Amino acid sequence: MDIKNRSLPEYKLELVPTSEEARIVQGFKWADENIGKRSKIGGEPGFIQNDDWPICSCCGKKMLFYAQLDSVGDKLCIADCGLIYVFMCFDCFETKSFVQSY
Ligand SMILES: [Zn+2]
User: Which residues are within 5 Å of ligand 1 (an ion), measured at CB?
Assistant: First the structure.
């Protein structure tokens, strides 16, 4: 499959706590229902702020959206219920990531 010039197929990532501590940390008291459930590989990035699409510093091409990783809970929150966005160049194997938050 040639994925270099289009988006990846989308896979939803679900959190499965593997310890009691992880189970306790997971979840939000007041956030919207979808917060904590936005992690995925592929598809289109769900930007919270401006469309901030990175360019590969090696070849200068637009990078491919690889994944977004959500906050886990009130005690493990990325800024204000933010997301980490991960982009990759499949030619150079360069990655870039950044955070957007409310
Ligand atoms: Zn590149």
Answer: 56, 58-59, 89, 91-92
Summarised one tens digit per residue, pLDDT across range 13-36 is 999 999 999 999 999 999 899 999
Domain count along the chain:
1
The ranges of the chain with pLDDT < 50 are none
Determine the structural domain holding residue 9 and report its residue range. 1-102
Å from CA of 14 to ligand 1 middle? 30
Distance 91 CA to ligand 1 centre (A): 5
Side chain identity at residue 89, one-letter code? C
Check: pTM over 0.85? Answer yes or no.
Answer: yes
Strands (E), the chain: 11-12, 40-41, 64-70, 83-89, 94-100
Name 8's bridge partners: none
